[in-house]
Amino acid sequence: MSVAAPHPSTPFRGRLNGAARAVLAFGLTVGVAIGLMGLSTGSRAAAAASLTVLMSDDNAAHSEFVQQLRASQEPGSRFELVRLSPTGEMPQTIETAGADTEPRANAGVRTRSMRPTAADANVTMAVGVAAARAAVERPGQEPLVLAMLSRLDYETLKAASPAFRRSDRRVGVLLRDPAMADQLALIGAVLPQKHRIGVVATPESEPLVRELQRAAQGANPAWDVRVEYAPDAKSLAAALRTVVPMSDALMVLPDLIGDNQAATLSVLRAGAGAGLPVFGASEGLVRSGGLAAAVSTPSQLAQQARLLGQKVASAGNASNNSPLVEAATPATVRVNATVARGLGLRLPEERELTDRLAAPR
């Protein structure tokens, strides 16, 4: 496996650093807002499991995730949705419901009448980067799940927040993208005789690149992964000219290139010009001309997040300061049949490919 990895500074970095700065406003000032779980009676609340969900935007995927969480509540449990304001200083809305009742919106701020204990199996779940920042920074010891984060979102939060190093809170992190091993398994199922993968990344993508390299080395047979770095938008074309001749397929990582439409289209055009299939981690890439992607839907992620919350809540006192991090699983395969025909490929049905990813390896 060969890797070329120059690391000059990059304007791509602006988007990631800007996102990090934007969420720094979610500091301790939101502590009151996040901890809000008003209890009608102390004894009743202490006896029932409770899920508090923090949400700071109207992202469609986040909304679907929360709807699935609410729909899957256990009988007798309590669900509370705290909608944070854009600044994170106060909640805009607090919706509270039991498993058998409709949620109701309350305009005011509500406070706890008693603090829950670990035995109550109460969990706080933050959806998205801004809510995760607010949840991590506030004081408290209740189990915490951070959901709908990319790998780079998580790495940025961990590096920027000393609160991640606390040992008194159990934290789970659910990444929104499937593991690199699943992405490579999909490519292997589609191109069984090919083993050269080309990737263009930014310097900030190192956590993803390392995961990809580990997965490639652990596969049987191993993948030959060629990585070229594009420190800025102008160098993307040069990186592609280097990596395309050495590849049987291209992969778009869920990073600043994968999140940038123009950069993604550059990779897709380079692949099309060379007759190479392009794989990724989003349905948008498949719709735009990628061959296939392994993705997890918001509903699937909600089910996994609930299970992760149960793991974190039942883990007992934290023995170290390492969060329990899970990649999205199961993954659903999306295929662009038009691209497959253009490349002269006959692919299995999406359901069959999805089943292959779920099979033990």
Architecture blueprint of SSEs:
Layout: H1 13-23, H2 31-34, H3 42-47, E1 50-55, H4 60-71, E2 78-84, E3 91-98, E4 104-106, E5 123-127, H5 129-137, E6 144-149, H6 151-160, E7 171-178, H7 180-190, E8 196-201, H8 206-218, E9 224-229, H9 235-243, E10 249-251, H10 261-274, E11 278-280, H11 283-288, E12 292-295, H12 298-313, E13 324-328, E14 332-335, H13 337-342, H14 350-358
Parallel strand pairs: 1-2, 1-5, 5-6, 6-7, 7-13, 8-9, 8-10, 10-11, 11-12
Antiparallel strand pairs: 2-3, 3-4, 12-14
Helix pairs in contact: 4-12, 7-14, 9-10
What does this structure look like?
By secondary structure, this protein is α/β, with parallel strands linked by helices. It folds into two domains: 15-177 and 300-328, no CATH class; 179-296 and 330-358, Response regulator (Rossmann fold). Helices cover 38% and strands 20% of the residues. The chain has 14 helices and 14 strands. The chain has helices at 13-23, 31-34, 42-47, 60-71, 129-137, 151-160, 180-190, 206-218, 235-243, 261-274, 283-288, 298-313, 337-342, 350-358; strands spanning 50-55, 78-84, 91-98, 104-106, 123-127, 144-149, 171-178, 196-201, 224-229, 249-251, 278-280, 292-295, 324-328, 332-335. The strands form two sheets. An eight-stranded mixed β-sheet has the order 4-3-2-1-5-6-7-13, with helices on both faces. Helix 4 (60-71) crosses helix 12 (298-313). The longest helix is centred in the C-terminal third of the chain and has 16 residues, at 298-313. The model is unreliable at 1-11, 13-48 and 99-120 (pLDDT under 50).
